[in-house]
Amino acid sequence: MSELATYLPPASLAASAHVSGMEAYQRLCAEAEADYEGYWARLAREFVEWKTPFTQVLDSSQAPFFRWFADGELNVSYNCLDRQVAAGLGAKTAIIFEADDGQVTTVSYEELLARTCRMANALKSLGVKKGDRVVIYMSMSVEGVVAMQACARIGATHSVVFGGFSAQSLRDRIEDAGAVLVITADEQLRGGKQLPLKSIVDDAIALGGCDSLRQVVVYRRTGGQIAWHADRDRWLHELTEGQPSTCEPEWVGAEHPLFLLYTSGSTGKPKGVQHASGGYLLHAALTTKWTFDLKPDDVFWCTADIGWVTGHTYIAYGPLALGATEVVFEGVPTYPDAARFWKMIERHKVSVFYTAPTAIRSLIKAAESNDAVHPRHSDLSSLRILGSVGEPINPAAWEWYHQHIGGGRCPIVDTFWQTETGGHMITPLPGATPLVPGSCTLPFPGIQAAIVDETGKDVPNGQGGILVVKKPWPSMIRTIWGDPERFKKSYYPADFQGRYYLAGDGAIRDEKTGYFTITGRIDDVLNVSGHRMGTMEIESALVGCTELVAEAAVVGRPDDTTGEAICAFVVLKRPRPSGDEAKAIAKQLRDWVGKEIGPIAKPKDIRFGDNLPKTRSGKIMRRLLRSVAKGEAVTQDTSTLENPAILEQLGQAY
Ligand code: 6R9
After folding, report:
1. DSSP-derived secondary structure letter, 406
2. Residue located nearest, by CA, to atom 7 of ligand 1
3. Which of 90, 304, 536, 582 pairs as cysteine with 577 (C-beta 3.0–4.6 A)?
4. Mutation test of ligand 1: which of 305, 518, 600 has the most ligand atoms closer than 8 Å to its C-beta?
């Protein structure tokens, strides 16, 4: 890695950056090193407005259930909205919303505050109280952000469920969270298509088990036909009509759960990652400011969906906590054509653009096969900083992004972080860090990232190992909702005597620079287009198709566009199919998984076998399946394999 080109921050950007030059970065790291709690306390006072100032900083008395600023009181929505209005930013544009069909609306801070208050009052009128859980199942919209802010305002804990998840997945999350209310929309618009939302909520409830749920609030987006259950369904516009545009914020303790967000783990059902209010808000605001060097005149655009953590921290909270102007986009990057992003950057004069490698890779492909959608036809001169998140960005995609989108002048911040970490953990700072394509470079100041071996011992640079964080940080996961034991086992395992946070990724540091490169998950979690998917989840969905499937194993294989692709090996309850029959069954199973989990979990490849490769003790040999999935010759030792002939069969196409 050290022999690869490094890109220095442009001098003009470095000169005026919030963190200007490597010495400034190192000073911050040294400050945290010298007085860890003092460092975070200083920033917490600078970035968060407290109703009641905290006197405690880090409380480790119940480790690994760490608490930050616990006796402080605040309101997150107050910090994002009222604070800006009070500072004279009421008329400033908070959100530039571009709809799927290209229609643009802007919302000022004043208006966003009024809409948040009306929705907060509406929720209160339905009896929603502090601590209640509210599921938000909406697509990208101003209302989605308002719903999150309104929950924060009244102290309700939101749990946003990505609009692409199925009724079954939604049901599981409503049940696990014990949600009292779901906020949804009649339908969503994506790529010119009207797709269902409310009917999926109906299906989720019909599956049973949502006993805690009292009401469903529906935002009218398309006006499409939907079924109505007068006893529980309420239109959002009817509820908010006539509600006062002010609402006293509910002051909560810093540890009050701001949100739950379900994410895939290596085993079992998705886990409800619980985040607190104070520490989370601090890191959201702090990282938005330093990592993106955000200034008052910037137009920030994070292309993530609010259904993922990136949309929480870098759409719903971070930019608003700084009084920034941000773009919120309803649609998809390929509609009406694959120049949509570039045209939007030009239209809205976006200066900081944050997206995922999978989007970049698919837009490179599109631009290479159709010149009309190439970014050079758009004026991208407003851009100053680019960002990447969700998965490793391969150097070729990095270089293209740098040259064709950034015009060779914009630093790319490759931000490594997770749902559990709340915000950036390892990332360049654009006015300080020399960049190496493919490396997320160095820890954010104050974050004690390290690489260790299986016993928790530090490994030297140049030698790969397990990525850990040695000290707790303010925006870290607090627990897994309803399952503290699983929290401990997943993140503070006994292997490291419960001392270190285990990220679940492997990493390596460069021998000379000490730069981090993430080498991928070390558990059974796949990363498909930046979305986390547990292989076990997909396997259990497949074997849940009891009419057809006897056994299934799921592995990932590298994919040029999506990073990893899902490959499923299936043993049917009928003889192994071939030709058209195999194709038809594969489609049926893909649709089944789409229905069980959501379209993002549909396996790209499905192979059929009379059996799976197993050891004599009956364990599925996944490492062999990974080779078969890649289409490479199996070179590993197969001596423990009970039925070697099966590998050839599983490798066959149909
Ligand atoms: C923010 C987010 C987390 C997992 C993480 C890692 C992968 C995220 C990355 C990256 C390499 C980066 N990941 N950012 N890998 N470089 N810059 O994506 O959260 O959905 O929880 O996924 O994504 O494997 O462990 P989440």
Report:
1. T
2. 391
3. 582
4. 518
- Residue 524: CB partners within 8 Å, gap ≥ 6? 266, 267, 534, 535, 536
Q: Could you identify the atom of ligand 1 that is nearest to the CA of residue 532?
A: 20
The residue whose C-alpha atom lies closest to atom 17 belonging to ligand 1 is 416
Concatenated DSSP letters for 129-193? -TT-EEEEE--SSHHHHHHHHHHHHHTPEEEE--TTS-HHHHHHHHHHHT-SEEEEESEEEETTE
- Positions at the binding site: 190-193, 310, 390-392, 414-419, 505, 521, 529, 532, 543, 549
The structure's pTM equals 0.93
- What pLDDT digit, counting tens, does each position of 246-257 carry? 999 999 999 999
Substitution candidate for ligand 1 out of 519, 532, 562 with most atoms within 8 A of CB: 532
On the question of pLDDT at 4 being above 70, the answer is no
Q: How many angstroms is it from 364 CA to the middle of ligand 1?
A: 21
So where are the chain's domains? Answer: 74-289+302-314, 529-650
Q: What is the mean pLDDT of the segment spanning 143-156?
A: 98
Summarised one tens digit per residue, pLDDT across range 528-540 is 998 988 898 899 8
What pLDDT is stored for residue 651 in this prediction?
86
Q: Does the beta carbon of 169 lie inside 6 Å of ligand 1?
A: no
- Point out the ligand 1 atom lying closest to the alpha carbon of residue 503: 25
Tell me, what's the pLDDT at 618? 74
Q: Judge if the beta carbon of residue 518 lies within 6 A of ligand 1.
A: yes
Q: How far is CA 465 from CA 231, 448, 451, 491, 508, in A?
A: 55, 15, 6, 16, 6
Atom of ligand 1 nearest to the CA of 426: 17
Q: How far is the CA of 418 from the centre of ligand 1 (A)?
A: 5
Q: 389 C-alpha vs ligand 1 centroid, how far in Å?
A: 7
Pocket lining: 414 vs ligand 1, CB cutoff 6 Å:
yes
Q: Is there an atom of ligand 1 within 6 Å of 390 CB?
A: yes
Q: Which CATH superfamily is domain 529-650 in?
A: ANL, C-terminal domain (3.30.300.30)
Q: What residue's CA is closest to ligand 1, atom 12?
A: 416
> Within 13 Å and on the Cβ side, how many CA atoms surround 216?
26
At residue 558 the predicted structure's pLDDT band, cuts being 50, 70 and 90, is: very high
H/E element, 648: helix 645-651
How far CA 581 is from CA of 229, 576, 612, 646, 653, in Å, comes to 41, 10, 20, 20, 13
User: What is the average pLDDT score of the chain?
Assistant: 95
Q: Report the SS3 class of residue 279.
A: helix
Say whether pLDDT at 143 is over 80: yes
Question: Stretch 505-513: mean pLDDT, rounded?
Answer: 95
CA distance linking residue 187 with residue 351, whole number of Å: 31
Q: What CATH number does domain 74-289+302-314 carry, 3.40.50.12780, 3.40.190.10, 3.10.450.50, 3.40.50.720?
A: 3.40.50.12780
Tell me the pLDDT tens digit for each residue of 168-190.
Answer: 999 999 999 999 999 999 999 99
pLDDT, position 1: 41
- What value does the mean pLDDT take over residues 426-445? 97
